[in-house]
Amino acid sequence: MTYQPSDQIYSGAFLPHTEAMGRPQMITFHLGDSIPREIYHQLTDEVSTPAERRRICERYLDRGRGRCWLNNKKIAGVVSQTLKFYDDSRYHLVDWVVMPNHVHVVYDRPAHPMGSIVKDWKSYSGQQCNRRLGRRGQFWRRDYFDRYARCPRHLFNMSCYVLLNPVKAGLVDDPFQWPFSSIHDYHPDFKEDLRRWYRDWKERFWIACDE
User: Fold this and answer.
1) What is the DSSP string of 65-128?
2) Largest CA distance in the chain
3) Residue 93 — φ and ψ, nearest 5°?
4) Pairwise CA distance, residues 101 & 94, whole Å
5) What is the pTM of this model?
6) Tens digit of pLDDT for each residue in 62-115?
7) Rounded to the nearest 5°, which phi and psi values hold at 138?
8) Domain total of the chain
9) Which terminal Cβ of the chain has fewer Cβ within 10 Å, N or C?
């Protein structure tokens, strides 16, 4: 059966999700110990809008709390290969970054529902990462954050956020220094354009990419 996208708003374990007519989506999912459960409950009770809830949680994630297993090169490699495995079969992978305790992904042209895509990412990568770490139990937090691109400019801003998140979190001074990112998948000629863009925008891009 071919997936027929439609606008739907539904609730996850803690957060609301929007399935938005097959439009580009930015997904954020994170390790089970990176945000305490009480923070989720506090945000659900006290923060009125999904956008503000997402911004607060992303600031919390950028602090690098928890055991940060994704700092391990082999573990980050499992996650990045999982994202790439479904590229061009379930979606078109636009940009991604694996941070120490969370992952940002932007994809377009989904051929499956968003919840199914995220479930498959987590299920396979969680099992493989646990095996390499010699552990059992929850690897990823059950829920995830999502937002869809309203227009090409918004999609561009999403990619800016993803590629530059390691800079925002204070992990590196230049986005090309972070190894676990789609920034390294670009054609060499375009990498120079990215470097030039970053030099011109690095003092002001956060205002634009969070619109």
Assistant:
1) -S--GGGSHHHHHHHHHHHHHTBTTTBEEEEEEE-SSEEEEEEES-SS-HHHHHHHHHHHHHHH
2) 48
3) -75, 120
4) 21
5) 0.84
6) 898 999 999 999 999 999 999 999 999 999 999 999 999 999 999 999 999 898
7) -65, 130
8) 1
9) N
